[in-house]
DNA sequence: AGCTGCTATTGGTATAGATCAAGAATAAGG
DNA sequence: CCTTATTCTTGATCTATACCAATAGCAGCT
């Protein structure tokens, strides 16, 4: 998955932090004045738990997974990141990062140091708003997703995951119909809270039901309707009891 | 559960938004200059999904639950709030609230309008930082908690819930040993993603194991060590596989 | 106070999905 | 290219816990 240079300008202009890169007059220009713009490779770590918090990042291309350390010290995957995502917001809490970020493929990020961020916030009302909005978005998205997992069976979890990926890709101007999973099945299972065997079985089952086609890491969604429908079959009692 | 007036000053001085209520010189004074300070009762709604976002709130006393609407339209509880909690941060995303807040008992909140918030942020670097920190804290806390639930069995979920409550009460200067659950078992079950019967059974089981004592809504933690230990018995494969 | 609806407990059964096991396919490394 | 390690698939059990059902206790309302 290479950096799609034709998408760069639009990505930057949609970026929550764009006011740090473009002045108002420059917004139409193609060449961004990004401060720091670095490339990482598969398995590289952007930062890890406990590391001093000195910057936030925006993923420009590629993908990454974030993880936290559960009580007992094992790795719990907290989410997957795609271009446009704000990364590192967890660090404001304790001036140290609460999660780790590991890249799943060759990726590039914009780095915004804390110093310049605060300076810019003092000046720009729109940046203040954008940053709060960005954090709020992360909060809402992840929370809603994780919460909904709670009351879903495994098939629904996996469907939900695929739909989520699909719509994120659509938003990025990619295909939401055919895409590659850059994470392993183990990662998916860990994230969704189920056994890797169940992930595998469900994928083949969904294939046999003509909902998706899977070949290795590549997924093709054949029947969006069926995929969405499977989500609606909530547990009956949950429906009745939580009114 | 009445408003504990003796705790008000210290609560305000610890508050992330305190710079909006006290000037630097006033911080030692007892009487806060809170803008708006309203009392609600059990089952009252602070705001609900879709409502225009025009203020953030800080819970001063009492407790509340937040909930989102899952895909199929049923209520999914997203968390419980206690004094000191920032509420309404979800609204920055779409200028409308993504969750609802319903009080579980008589409670009071401070209201901070968006206009005055932004004005204050332009001036105060510490407020900027405090707000970002507050949001980051919410993000980390809820995320970590929800994620950890994923790979826990029911007993661990409930233990985790109780431990979480206990430590929050300790932080508030209350007893972390004896406290009242202000939410119903249905709420707990919904939040933890399990059946209400399981909650009930586990509570009685933990009682028979001399870990806790339960009488109606009142919980007394007898053996913190056992309670914590139960969390460590993670599923074995999760441990091995997620390295 | 007495009715009505809400909340909680306890018992019994069925099943989704974790776990154990083995092998195949793919990737990484020399 | 071959060897070794990782990732993924498929099969067979077994267990946690959702689901169904019945009852009891409490709270709110007239």
The chain-level mean pLDDT of chain A equals: 84
Low-confidence stretches of chain A: 1-8, 25-34, 236-243
Structural class of chain A: alpha+beta
Number of self-contained structural domains of chain A: 2
User: How many strand segments of chain A?
Assistant: 11
Strand content of chain A: 15-25%
Gap between N and C termini of chain A, in Å?
45 Å
**CATH first level of the largest domain in chain A:** Mainly Beta
CATH fold node name of the largest domain in chain A = Jelly Rolls
Q: N-to-C SSE series of chain A? A: HEEEEEEEEHHHEHHEEHH
Largest sheet of chain A: 4 strands, antiparallel
Strand line-up of the largest beta sheet of chain A: 1-8-3-6
C-alpha geometry of chain A:
globular
Regarding quaternary structure, what we see is homodimer
- Which two chains form the greatest contact, residue counts included? A-B, 57 and 57 residues
CATH architecture field of the largest domain in chain A: Sandwich
Evaluate the radius of gyration of chain A.
19 Å
CATH superfamily of the largest domain in chain A: Jelly Rolls
Task: Please outline what is shown here.
The first copy, chain A, has 243 residues and is of the alpha+beta class.
Give a structural overview:
- The structure is a homodimer of 243-residue chains.
- Chain A is α+β, with helices and mostly antiparallel strands and 243 residues long.
- Chain A has two domains: 5-138, Jelly Rolls, CATH 2.60.120; 151-241, Arc Repressor Mutant, subunit A, CATH 1.10.10.
- Chain A contains eight helices and eleven strands.
- Chain A has helices at residues 8-14, 114-123, 125-150, 154-171, 185-192, 196-208, 224-232, 236-241; strands spanning 36-40, 45-47, 55-61, 64-69, 75-81, 86-87, 100-103, 107-113, 178-180, 212-215, 218-221.
- In chain A, strands 1-8-3-6 form a four-stranded antiparallel β-sheet. Chain A has a four-stranded antiparallel β-sheet with strand order 2-7-4-5.
- In chain A, a hairpin with a 2-residue loop joins strand 10 and strand 11 (218-221).
- In chain A, helix 4 (154-171) crosses helix 7 (224-232) and helix 5 crosses helix 6.
- The longest helix of chain A is centred in the middle third of the chain and has 26 residues, at 125-150.
- Chain A is globular and about 55 Å long.
- The relative contact order of chain A is 0.13.
- Chains A and B meet through strand 5, helix 2, helix 3, helix 5 and helix 8 of A and strand 5, helix 2, helix 3, helix 5 and helix 8 of B.
- The structure holds a DNA duplex (30 and 30 nucleotides).
């Amino acid at each position: 998955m290479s950096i799609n240079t034709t998408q760069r300008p639009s990505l930057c202009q949609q970026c929550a932090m764009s006011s740090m890169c473009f002045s108002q007059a420059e917004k139409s220009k193609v060449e961004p004045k990004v401060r720091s713009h670095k490339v990482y490779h598969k398995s590289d770590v952007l930062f890890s738990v406990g590391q001093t918090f000195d910057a936030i990042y925006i993923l420009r291309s590629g993908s990454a997974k974030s993880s936290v350390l559960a009580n007992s010290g094992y790795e719990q995957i907290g989410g997957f990141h795609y271009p446009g995502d704000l990364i590192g917001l967890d660090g404001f809490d304790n001036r140290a990062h609460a999660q780790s970020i590991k890249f799943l493929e060759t990726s590039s990020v914009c780095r915004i140091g804390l110093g310049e961020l605060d300076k810019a916030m003092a000046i720009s009302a729109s940046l203040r708003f954008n940053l709060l909005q960005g954090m709020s978005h992360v909060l809402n998205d992840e929370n809603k997703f994780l919460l909904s997992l709670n009351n879903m069976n495994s098939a629904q979890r996996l469907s939900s995951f695929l739909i989520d990926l699909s719509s994120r890709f659509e938003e990025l101007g990619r295909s939401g119909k055919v895409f590659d999973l850059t994470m392993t099945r183990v990662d998916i299972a860990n994230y969704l809270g189920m056994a890797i065997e169940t992930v595998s079985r469900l994928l083949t089952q969904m294939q046999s039901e003509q909902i998706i086609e899977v070949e290795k890491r590549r997924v093709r969604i054949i029947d969006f309707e069926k995929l969405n429908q499977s989500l609606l079959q909530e547990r009956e009692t949950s429906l009745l009891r939580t009114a």
